[in-house]
Amino acid sequence: MDIGSFFVILLSTAVTFGLFSILTGVDNPFFAWAENTYVGGAVGMTIVVSFTWIVSNLIQKILSNPYVNWPLIISLILGLMMLLRVHPKYSYLARIPISIATGVGVAVSTRAAIFSGLLYQIRATILPIFDWRKPETAFTNLMIVVFVVTIMTFFVYTTELKGPLKISHRIGRLVLFASFGALFAQTYMGRLGLFLGAMETLLIPETNFRISITVALIMLITIIVLKRYYPETLNKLVP
Amino acid sequence: MSSLFKVFANIDRRVWHLLTFILVGYTLLHPIGLPLKVSPEVKKAYEVIENLKPGDVVLINFDIAAFGWDEIKGSCLSMIPHIFSKEGVKVIFLTVQDQGYIFIERTISQIGKPMPGYDKFPWYEIQGKKYLQDYINIGFIPGFDKAIAALAQDFRGVVGGKDWYGNSIEEWLDKNGIKSAKDIDLIVTFDCAGAQSYFVSYWYVPFKTKILNAMIGVSAPGSIVNYNAGMLEGIVISIRGAAEYQYLSKYYGMALVSMDAFSIIQFMLLIAILIGNIGYYGWERRKEKR
């Protein structure tokens, strides 16, 4: 392993364990450093990449042929007007590009949302529930149809709930709770997936494993020593 | 008995953190080989790629940021080699995240090798497919949902005439008959921020373009809804989905290995829930009554 790769692994390991260090329950300088480094790095990256893209796809095109690419000049002016939001005197000018962006966004997304968010979803609940050749599929389809209807009755607020409507409302409530449980489990699995991926990078191959163990131990021991023997210094080190 | 309930109710949460680190670390380094069942949605995704024909154009979108890379890399490193293994298939890499181009290059460098006579990007060869002959990388296009919508409206205009590295791609696009979004046969989107919903809205709804989606676990609910509605051809959820895909495609990797750790941590969570509830009902709740 060359020295460059070593330092890259060392830095990524230190940032990862720095962020994990909050799990010790102690607000510590490693966490503060890692958090600020990550945020700063991500913002810096966004600025550089976006600026490079603007130069190569906007400025260069305008300079190369301003007569053909004149619409881009309007885009550039609108973009610059957006930046005036930070100027106390001319901030009102930023409303114009924001209004245009909002209007275009709503116009573009509305049509698509009607299809993908509504019509296609409704179509997906119109299912065959009497297919005796495939009883498992028929049962699943039946459950989908029943649960969609009962959950919809849960959101009926304009009439008194009694009789079958009340039963449906109660079933819908229970199904919603079950779905919240499934969503929570899914989210947990997602977080666990992220953690596993990070652990894999930290532990494999063996060089990473050695660096990780060393960095983790140094951080843990430092936090324990600071917490136990130098609490004032620990407070000073945390912003 | 009450002292046991008291112990259960007062376990320091750092014990669980430490236990998680130890169990995950140990099982990653010493996998057991627990059985794995392939889900139908991953099988469908596999079949869609398996049935690609010569001349098909695949658009691979990297909606990937640093925070999600470790989770989604298993899908990237198995699905992309599978696509490249299909004869005559042309590939366009794209990203709607500013950090995404880093991960496109990282993926290419892991599954490919520099072309003879070259030593840097973009001149890499993947499974015999060469840059600017079989695939291109148009890199980052800002705007996220607006970029995806704009690509659907005016693909050539938004892509422009150059790739991410400044090479002309006009000839490559002309040669492969890519004039508009309609000429894309399959979209594979690796998501950390839910780009699939915009591909569904702006590509599937008007053109019925086939879409495959691999995503991090927290983005899964939105993808599952669209998959059930038939708008996504197949979905690969998190490391679990990646492991199933690696098993099917035989591009084995760490996702498959990490499934043991996944299962063991799930068991640990169940035990933790059980212990927590015993502690709560046996000690905390009685304490309230007392």
In short:
The complex is a heterodimer of chains A (239) and B (290). With 239 residues, chain A is an all-alpha fold.
| Estimated structural class of chain A | mainly alpha
Q: State the largest interface.
A: A-B, 44 and 58 residues
Q: Which spans of chain B have pLDDT < 50 for at least 5 consecutive residues?
A: none
- Quantity of strands of chain A, as a count: 0
Q: Your description of this structure?
A:
Chain A has 239 residues and is an all-alpha fold. Chain A has a domain at 127-203. Chain A contains eight helices and no strands. By secondary structure, chain B is of the alpha/beta class. Chain B folds into two domains: 2-28 and 263-285; 40-257, 3-Layer(aba) Sandwich (Rossmann fold), CATH 3.40.50. Helices cover 53% and strands 14% of the residues of chain B. Chain B is built from 13 helices and nine strands. Chain B has helices spanning 2-9, 13-29, 40-50, 66-84, 100-111, 145-153, 155-159, 170-175, 196-207, 220-228, 238-249, 254-257, 259-289; strands at 57-63, 90-95, 113-114, 124-126, 129-130, 135-140, 186-191, 210-215, 234-237. In chain B, β8 (210-215), α10 (220-228) and β9 (234-237) form a beta-alpha-beta unit. Chain B is elongated, with a radius of gyration of 23 Å. The interface between A and B is large, with 44 and 58 residues.
Write the layout of secondary structure elements.
The complex is a heterodimer of chains A (239) and B (290).
Chain A: H1 3-20, H2 29-64, H3 70-83, H4 95-125, H5 135-154, H6 164-203, H7 206-229, H8 231-237
Helix pairs in contact in A: 1-2, 1-7, 2-3, 3-4, 5-6, 7-8
Chain B: H1 2-9, H2 13-29, H3 40-50, E1 57-63, H4 66-84, E2 90-95, H5 100-111, E3 113-114, E4 124-126, E5 129-130, E6 135-140, H6 145-153, H7 155-159, H8 170-175, E7 186-191, H9 196-207, E8 210-215, H10 220-228, E9 234-237, H11 238-249, H12 254-257, H13 259-289
Parallel strand pairs in B: 1-2, 1-7, 2-6, 7-8, 8-9
Antiparallel strand pairs in B: 3-4, 4-5
